[in-house]
Amino acid sequence: MTTPSTLPQYVDELRRQFPALSRTNHDKPVAFFDGPAGTQVPRSVITAISDYLTKHNANCGAPFATSRETDGILDEARSAMADMLGAPDPDEIAFGPNMTTLTLALSRALGRTWQPGDEIIVSRLDHDANVTPWVLAACDAGATVRYIEVRPDDCTLDLDSFEAALSDRTRLVAVGYASNAVGTINPVAHVISRARSVGALTSIDAVHYAPHGLIDVAALGCDFLVCSAYKFFGPHIGIMWGRRELLESIRPYKLRPSPDDLPGRWMTGTQSHECIAGALAAVDYIADIGRRLQPAAAGRRDQLSAAFQEIVDHEQSLAQQLIAGLGQFDALRIWGITDTNRLHERVPTVSVTHARLKPREIASRLADQGVFTWAGNHYALPLTETLRLEPEGTLRIGMVHYNTADEVDRLLTALADIV
Ligand SMILES: Cc1ncc(COP(=O)(O)O)c(C=O)c1O
Questions:
Q1: CA of 399 to the centre of ligand 1 (A)
Q2: Distance, CA 227 to ligand 1 centroid (Å)?
Q3: Which atom of ligand 1 lies closest to the CA of 100?
Q4: Distance between CA 300 and CA 302 in Å, rounded?
Q5: C-alpha angle 398-234-82 in degrees, rounded to nearest 5
Q6: How far, in Å, is the centroid of ligand 1 from the Cα of 58?
Q7: Which DSSP string do the residues of 132-189 spell out, in sequence order?
Q8: Which of 13, 37, 59, 114 could make an S-S bridge to 118, C-beta 3.0–4.6 Å?
């Protein structure tokens, strides 16, 4: 069961900060249920990006004002991301084009420390960006890939298969924090501690979890964690956190003149400074929710923590409403956790299939009603293959804190006409 949240009373005020949320489509208001593919952005983020380009635009490291200001904005953004991820040291934060590119770079660098006989473990619940980069690196090194299987009944990780795969040959375990296809929150703390017990490194894909819950890399004890700001109300940019001693000791693929200290050695080429400014504003936007709703929270990390308490309560209540509503349609099957006593084990990302209609057809008929959902495999290809849902995949309905109970009602009414 869910705890009442105070956030719904403020949601209209929060929504007014997002220009896109007042958009119409064929004279109908748009209900955005496509957050898992990218969230909308508040005005403060748009302003931060345009302010950067208007006032501070420069490359890093030069002795003139705009360059110094750029260096300062990058430092501030790293501090904000360290607060967001619970990282002890802002120098452990590296920015890059997106999570996929950062993971390909990290996997290539780590892979050159592997050899035949070494093993890595990935999961069949993950987005492919946390699978194929590791598989390719293992293949180059002659290392073996093992899989954590998925339980089809509730789309959770099969931890017995994890135990069977884990051994003193395991060099790396890569697992997602939450599934972008079916919403499952994985028991990452447990997976990390089991991996550490055999001396393996861990890399966590927190892209899907980041807008839904507070991340604490120090408490988790992982070695690397990646996420993307465009999934938590920021612009299109990726973020990687790594443990200092590893980021310093592992050799990245980098250019000779580029810095060899942290974080520069992991940030190849010139970055999107305007998007880094936008990521900083996105973290501050979330912290501001905490500041308003729990004024006792002092400091950005505590404000983020307060914000996510409110966000979790609100999102669980939306998930409960949506799952109960979807359960009324006999021809729909919900993939993933549906038990209302287990809502804390999922984020409000819900995938369904229909007995006859293809996901894409339902998504496009919903779009005609101004209800934006997603259809396909969501790049969680190992999962849709395991569930035998290829090639059509699922209809994915994804919610974030700016979604409302009225929007869920609209979606269910529109679905009733279609299915
Ligand atoms: C869970 C998950 N991991 C990784 C990615 C890839 O992120 P990016 O687009 O930043 O490469 C996505 C994108 O949808 C995702 O949802």
A1: 16
A2: 8
A3: 11
A4: 6
A5: 110
A6: 29
A7: HHHHHHHHHHT-EEEEE-EETTTTEE-HHHHHHH--TTEEEEEEESB-TTT-BBP-HH
A8: 114
Question: Distance, CA 238 to ligand 1 centroid (Å)?
Answer: 9
State the sign of the Cα–Cα–Cα–Cα dihedral 179, 184, 190, 191: negative
Q: Mean of the pLDDT values across residues 221-236?
A: 98
Is the beta carbon of 78 within 6 A of some atom in ligand 1? no
Asked if residue 186 has its Cβ within 6 Å of ligand 1, the reply is no
pLDDT tens for 41-75 read 999 999 999 999 999 999 999 999 999 999 999 99
β-strands 93-96, 238-242: how paired? antiparallel
Taking the alpha carbons of 128, 132, 133, 134 in that order, is the dihedral positive or negative?
A: positive
Phi, psi of 34 (to 5 degrees): -110, 20
Q: Which two tokens stand for residue 38?
A: 């990218």
Of the residues 103, 180, 272, 351, which should be mutated to test ligand 1's pocket, given the most ligand atoms within 8 Å of the CB? Answer: 180
For a substitution probing ligand 1, which of 208, 272, 347, 396 has the most ligand atoms within 8 Å of its CB? 208
Where residue 4 falls among pLDDT bands split at 50, 70, 90?
Answer: low
**CA-CA-CA-CA dihedral for 131, 134, 136, 141, to nearest 10:** -150
pLDDT at 8: 86
Q: What is the amino acid identity at position 103?
A: T
Ligand 1 atom with least separation from CA of 37: 14
Judging by DSSP bridges, how do beta strands 119-123 and 144-148 pair with one another?
A: parallel
pTM for the structure as a whole: 0.97
For residue 373, is pLDDT > 80? yes
Residue 254 φ then ψ, to 5° = -145, 165
379, 381, 383, best to mutate for ligand 1 pocket (most atoms within 8 Å of CB): 379
